Every structure is written in structure tokens, then in C-alpha cells.
Amino acid sequence: MYQPDSLQRLSLGVKENSLSPEDKLGLLIDSFALCQSNYVNVVDVLRLSECFLDETDFSVCGKLVSGLGALRPFVQHLTQGNDQQFNVFLCKSLQKMKSSLGWEAAKDESHATKLIREQILTVLGSCGDPNVVQEASRRFSDYCSKQATLSADITTPVFVTVLSNGDKEVYDKLLEIYDNEDMLEEKNRISGILGLTPNESLIQQTLNFAMSDKVRNQDTVATLAGATWTLQGRQLVWKFVQDNWQELYRRYSTSTMMSRLIKVITDGVCCAETAKQMENFFKAHQVKNAQRAIQQGLEQIATNVAFIHHQGAALMSFLNDQ
């Protein structure tokens, strides 16, 4: 377990770049895990994360982004879905990385750098960074009018940004691209992000789309998962699963996909009342090959509820001071 003074010393090592990528990765993994289990103060971990502004290692950047992202459901629960302050913090934390990466790959650029660019621009775009939104919108417009193509490392950032900050026109355009696309990989890219729309009716349309004959059965759960990025989306997905349980059970009761579905509906839930609803639902609708996934999901929700109780106030105080 890290004590505050230990984290301060390690933070200095990160700033001075005296720690190896392996050490920094281990530090982030441990810190975020201990934080979510209430063994380390969330504010200390957030301050630690601010020391990684110049990070260039893909694995370290990936853990930084995913670790911070795992805190989003807590903020959404505490603010009834308004995570604007969290977006401000993320944009502030990742600005320097964005500036050094840009939108265009340099000559002889490494594959890892391309992956970091995709990751950072996607996060900033989904958080509403004004410059990223403006540039992504321009590139999307050029792409749709066939004036330009999108390289592999910026396709997801562009699509995610315009969708999460756009309207029905953008949503419908992405559906059109989906329908006209021949490559399964590209179809899955689009279906997996459609749920990021901020429009409740379009989220519901995405859930219905996931169960339609336009999406392969094995890709339905991934499409549903894409809608759980917001508090509103998680609530809609949970209701949708209950309403469509008979068909979902028919499709997945004998496969490992059922465990994946359970994880999708339990991830990010921070409400004890919802946990009780889920527990009662799965008592009434037994799924023999997913009992372990159900138990793990409920245990994770209990951990989330405990985090809210112990560290929720400190988390929001830190974000409000940004």
C-alpha cells in the first residue's frame, strides 16, 4: 500500500523521468486499483496522474487513460450524469500529449505513437475539447464528401468525437456509412460507438439496432456495451436487457457471451438499489453458466458503492477546484 509521502516521492520520479516505463506502469496499476478499493486516497492518485503530462510510452498512456476513465462512473453517479468537471480535468491533463502528437503522423513514426494518438484524441474528443471537436468535424465533413480519407489512427477519434458532440444528422450519417461498408472491422468500429450519442432516443435506437438483423449475434453485446459510457446509457441498457431477456437468453445462455453481457450491465453501476434489482432479477432468471460473472458483478457494485461513500466527496471537491 502506498502512503501519501511515498506517492509524493514516486510522483517526483515520474516528473523527472527517472522511473522506467515498467515501473510507471506498475505504479499506475497499483494506485488505481488501491484507490478504487479505498486503500489510497483518490486525490493523491489524481495528483499523481498529473505528473504524466509528458508520457510517451503506449502502455503507460493506456493505463493512465483507462485508470482515469474508470473514475467517470463515480462522478456521473454523484452528479446525476453531469460529468463536465471531470471532462475539464481530463482535457487539462492530456493537452500536452495532444500538442506533441498532433493529427498527422510524422515520417517513420512508430506504430506505438500512432496508437497513443488514437487513444488521446478519442478521449479528448469524447470530452468535448473544443479544438479536437472542431478538427474532427472538419475531417468528418471532408470524409463524407469524399474530399479526403481518414487514416487508421484517426478514424475512431473522428467518429467518436462527431458522434458524442453531434446530433441526429451525424448519427444517421454514421449509420449510412455502416450500411455501405463491406469490411466487418469497420462495421464493428461504428456499431461499437453508436451508443456514445448524448441523445436518449438515439441511444434507444442503438439498442434496438443491436438486436436487429443488421448486427451479427456475436456483435450485439459489444454494441450494447458502447451505450454504457454515460449514466443515462447504463440505465437504458439495464432496462433494455430486462425487457429483451427472453431473446438474449435464447442467444447466449449456453455461451461465454452471457458472462460478457453480465459484465456490460454491471460495470460502472454505483447504486445499491440497482444492485438489489439485479440480484433479484437473476434469482428469478437463473443462468447456470454465468453465476460467477453475476457474483463478480454484484461484488464490484458493492465496491463502487463503498468508494462513493468513502471518497465521493473528496473526488468532487478536487474536480470542482479545477
UniProtKB/TrEMBL annotation:
Keywords: Aminopeptidase, Hydrolase, Protease. The keyword Protein biosynthesis does not apply. One of its GO terms (cellular component) is cytoplasm. InterPro entries: ERAP1-like_C_dom, Peptidase_M1_aminopeptidases. It comes from the Eukaryota. GO terms for biological process: peptide catabolic process; proteolysis. Residues 2-302 form the ERAP1-like C-terminal domain. The keyword Translocase does not apply. One of its GO terms (molecular function) is peptide binding. Belongs to the peptidase M1 family. PANTHER family: PROTEASE M1 ZINC METALLOPROTEASE, PUROMYCIN-SENSITIVE AMINOPEPTIDASE-RELATED. This is Puromycin-sensitive aminopeptidase.
